[in-house]
Amino acid sequence: MEKLNIQKHIEYFRRTRESLPQEVHSSYMTVLFFIISGNDILSQKDDLPKDEIIDWVYRQQVTQAPYAGFRANPSAEILTQTPWDYASLASTYSALCILKILGDDYSRVAKNQIIISLSQCILEDGSVVSHYGGIENDMRFVYCACAICYLLDNWNGIDKDKITRFIASCQSYEGSFAISPGLEGHGGATYCALSSLYLMGRIGLLDKENGVIDDSLCEFSFDRKDKLIEWLVMRQGLGFSGRSGKAPDTCYGYWVGLSLCMLGASEYVNRLENYEFYSECQTVYGGFSKYPGLKRPDFTHSYLGLCAVGVLGIDGVKKLFAPIGIDENLF
Amino acid sequence: MTSEISMAQQSEWSDVIPKPEYSQKVKIGKINYLPQFEEMMKYFRSVHDNKEYSERALNLTTNLLKACPGFYTGWHYRAELLDILKKNLDEELVFLSSLSLRNHKNYQIWNYRRELIKKIGSCEGEIDFLNIVLDIDCKNIHVWGYRQWLITTFNLWDQEYEYVAKLLDEDPYNNSAWSQRYFLESHSQFYKTSEFEKKNLEFVLEHCKNIDNECPYNYLKVYYCQELKERIMQGLVDIAKDKGFSRFLLQNLGFLYEKDAKGEMCDIVYKKLAKIDFMRKGYWNWKVRRTVRKNIQRTDNDIWVCRALRDNEEYYNPIYNYYKYSAPQ
């Protein structure tokens, strides 16, 4: 297990602190989360300017419902409660993760206002929009909403039955999940669906045959857990792919690997082959590229790849709490 | 505005005081903005905060969104501007299309398009445009999501069958096309009717003759029911007699045997899979361990499968060719 050069990845993640390209402007909070979490799982968070980062994160907070939450990045000057500069569920989830990693106790988080705002993002069919008044609704934001409720330990804003029904409607004929009903099953969407069920305490619905769930939840019909596990296991071709008939890609070790963890089936990953794949995707600068043989790393794949390597159980990389995606020792 | 000339030097903007970002930057993860983008953002903050709805503000969003198509505050402002300025939405669609071709994997663009088409109330030319974008990447999930919305909203079901047939003809490994086929099938008025299912099953079995293609083999699971399982079993055995076994074919045999509680047959199939599907050896061995072996009445097909798997090594086909990785030593 010496082909993966953890020292190189430490260097890479320390460098990510320094500069980022313009494209990350609208997803800055999430990118910051990946930088901080990447440093954390490599045990490099001690010299981060913690207080400064925490203060910056709190300055992105909008505290009045229905707009409450954290913004990705301040676009406009206005600091007050306006619909102009949106807080979004994705950046609220990312901000809460950053705060947790850095040891903040959420004492300044406008918890109730965020929960009220989040409840306004849930549509009639149980799907969730990206932010109050937003037009994008799919499984990604179902996940963000569940993760926020879990982190704030407050489920008052969510109708779990409604959300569960939506997740069930996204299950594909392959056993996997799609981001919206009718679409192709996909590793990332499957991770979001399973994490949401897990965080709601309902992942047992997938195993109804074994009588894990009580009668009050009988109305929800999911396909058999076995079929889903088999679909996930079938994604491996050295590394993991996200859909049937596609090539392996470093980021799906995260989505598929963590999904298998949540289903108690991570032992079926062929660790040696997967390890081989990540060794091929590691670049000389540290970090990972999307596919083997590309010479340059990209930031998202480096972070998700590193976490995926952690799933394999490798010295020097902390394991994640699968449904939230940060160091498991934080819980 | 041309991007070469600084906005500060343009008379059009002389009455606006550009606003820098208010907060001190966090000391890690600094974004390296291009100078033009940073300047545009300063003017954006200004007009945005003043709630200015003007032609120049619209032009500013055009330039900003070209530089950063994921800028969702910009998209929202733009939608309001179009409304208030009563702009021609067909022209907006032209702008959007040119941007979409360069950034076709962006969520905002496709959701914005959906809202725009709702307002225009016509889908003229949309399918043609989507065909062009799917030509660039036929598995683009954003485009498929928008396409399904379009089909449902404007009742475009009939012509879609033809398109999916064409895609599968060009590339039967395209799982997005298979998935779209299921979308059509499950919305048909004949869904779950006997004749319809039988006909579709034959189409899928025909594709299963390509034993390396996972897609039709996954699709077969749509038809597992009491009435069709005999036909599926016969179909698989016929293909195996002609082409040999692949892991996908064996996986489906295992699935059928499990449903029929034919533990002895499962045992044989999963043991073979553990032997030939190196990648998932641990998984198939677990399936073997879980199998309850009980003797059952074997059909002729079962007897043939047993013999073929036990006696004839030539009946299975190495399965790593599709991913272009050779089997490990």
From TrEMBL, chain A:
What SUPFAM superfamilies has UniProt attached to this entry?
Terpenoid cyclases/Protein prenyltransferases
> What Gene3D superfamilies does the record point to?
1.50.10.20
What does the UniProt keyword field contain?
A: Metal-binding, Prenyltransferase, Repeat, Transferase, Zinc
| Domain named Prenyltransferase alpha-alpha toroid: residues | 4-317
Q: Fetch the Pfam families from UniProt.
A: Prenyltrans
- GO terms of molecular function: CAAX-protein geranylgeranyltransferase activity; metal ion binding
Q: Name one GO cellular component term.
A: CAAX-protein geranylgeranyltransferase complex
Q: What is this protein called?
A: Prenyltransferase alpha-alpha toroid domain-containing protein
Origin species, per record, is Stentor coeruleus
Automatic annotation (TrEMBL), chain B:
Transmembrane ranges?
Answer: none
What InterPro entries does the database record attribute to this sequence? Prenyl_trans_a (IPR002088)
The cross-references to Pfam families, in alphabetical order and at most eight, read:
PPTA (PF01239)
Keywords, comma-separated and alphabetical: Magnesium, Prenyltransferase, Repeat, Transferase
Q: Which GO terms describe its cellular component?
A: CAAX-protein geranylgeranyltransferase complex; protein farnesyltransferase complex
One GO MF term attached to the UniProt entry: protein farnesyltransferase activity
Do the record's keywords include Secreted? no
Task: Return the EC number.
Answer: 2.5.1.58, 2.5.1.59
Is Repeat among the key words of this record? yes
Please list the cofactors this protein needs.
Answer: Mg(2+)
What family is it from? Belongs to the protein prenyltransferase subunit alpha family.
> What is this protein called in UniProt?
Protein farnesyltransferase/geranylgeranyltransferase type-1 subunit alpha
Species per Swiss-Prot/TrEMBL record? Stentor coeruleus
